[in-house]
Amino acid sequence: MAKYFALHTTIGDPAAGWDFFQKGAPALAAAMAAGQTPAKCIKTWNPFAFGRGDYVFCLWEAENPEDIMSILSNSGLTDYVTVDVMPVAEIDWAELALAVE
User: Where does 12-75 have alpha helices with state H?
Assistant: First the structure.
């Protein structure tokens, strides 16, 4: 599977989006872990607790970006955040450091 980065910006009140996420995310995470979704969110970075409600960042594994969009749309998250999905390559900095040893 390919890796994708999803950049989200809030639509409306960030607190409302965070509340919706906290209620629905555990069931969505369980479905992804059970292989019941066509794509899988690996990590999410959310700076909301640190005073930044303008962006949320997610790393996904998927065959294509449409699978990610389908999950986010069907979950209702696109009512609270915009979605910009882009393919990415991971750089492992620990591995990169070994090149100079």
Answer: 14-33, 65-75
* Cβ neighbours, 10 Å, residue 17: 21
The answer to whether 9 and 81 have CB atoms below 8 angstroms apart is yes
pLDDT tens sequence across 40-56:
999 999 888 898 878 89
Which residue is listed with tokens 């980065």?
Answer: 5
The residue type found at 94 is A
CA-to-CA separations, 77 to 7, 10, 81, 84, 91, in angstroms, rounded: 13, 10, 6, 13, 29
What pTM value is reported for the model? 0.86
What is the residue whose two structure tokens read 């996904």?
60
